[in-house]
């Protein structure tokens, strides 16, 4: 395994960079989109709620592979998307549907009395949401958001199906060239652990810190 790693270290390192970059872009995009569609699901507008509900149900109930392949096949015909871009767009939209549900659950868990108090003190709906509700909703949703972020990193392996240059794509190429599939995929698994383990521990740290602050406040 060491020989396989050293002889293909450049390729694995480049693929590691693509996987990290795709995960970071998708994480930021899905968090923004997920929050937006979570808010649309609670606004006093039946049309907005309907649009958000359709978006969440569509992207949450279609397999990620189909979403990524759709953007890859359609995108390459319309605006010449490469595999990395198409895969990252698909990954972002798919993950945002789950994050929307997570953030919405966090919003619903915030005591309604705080919202009523903020509105009674003259804050607008958007101010109440931004200053009072969303910060608490994110804290409540930290454990679930952490799981979504870790799933996002692991799901980035879907880029291999559209030649996205990620870790799994490179592992397939190395395995095909060396006929050593076993060690190729073990090496890729270790690279994924390098990303997901620190992220997992950091989310646990944030969760513990949030609970500690909550106890101090009480």
Automatic annotation (TrEMBL):
It comes from the Bacteria. One of its GO terms (cellular component) is ATP-binding cassette (ABC) transporter complex. It is a multi-pass membrane protein. GO terms for molecular function: transmembrane transporter activity. InterPro entries: AA_ABC_transptr_permease_3TM, ArtM/GltK/GlnP/TcyL/YhdX-like, MetI-like, MetI-like_sf. One of its GO terms (biological process) is amino acid transport. The keyword Cell membrane applies. The chain crosses the membrane at residues 20-42, 54-74, 182-202. Its main location: membrane. It is found in: Cell membrane. PROSITE patterns: ABC_TM1. Residues 16-203 form the ABC transmembrane type-1 domain. Keywords: Cell membrane, Membrane, Transmembrane, Transmembrane helix, Transport. NCBIfam families: HEQRo_perm_3TM. Belongs to the binding-protein-dependent transport system permease family. This is Glutamate transport membrane-spanning protein. It comes from Oenococcus kitaharae DSM 17330. The lineage of its organism: Bacteria, Bacillati, Bacillota, Bacilli, Lactobacillales.
